[in-house]
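Task card 7
Instruction: Convert sequence to structure tokens.
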Amino acid sequence: MGLPASVSLDRLDRTLAALADPNRRQVVDLLSRRPMRAGELAQATGLSPQAMSRHLRVLRSSELIEESRGDSVDARVRLYVLRSTPMNELKAWLEQTEALWSEQLLSFKAHLEAQE
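Output:
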């Protein structure tokens, strides 16, 4: 049972590495509710602007988030938005892993029952 062809193992590794940090998971959680500016994210998480900048850089390089620059009022404003593709790939991988383990456990159960 292989991963769906659309799932990139490299991106999956980057997603898991990015989500290994609790501050980045908190940012992902916040962005799952709505797009936010870096300052809003720093304030909501209690991190310094410099620390938030580092976390946002990791999340962007893992492709979990993207930066949207400006609007019609102020082109300097940067909004951060959660991307769905990496999370969908992680979900597909987890579902595949769960199916594999379920199959293995059912086989083990059948083996034990046959031994009785």
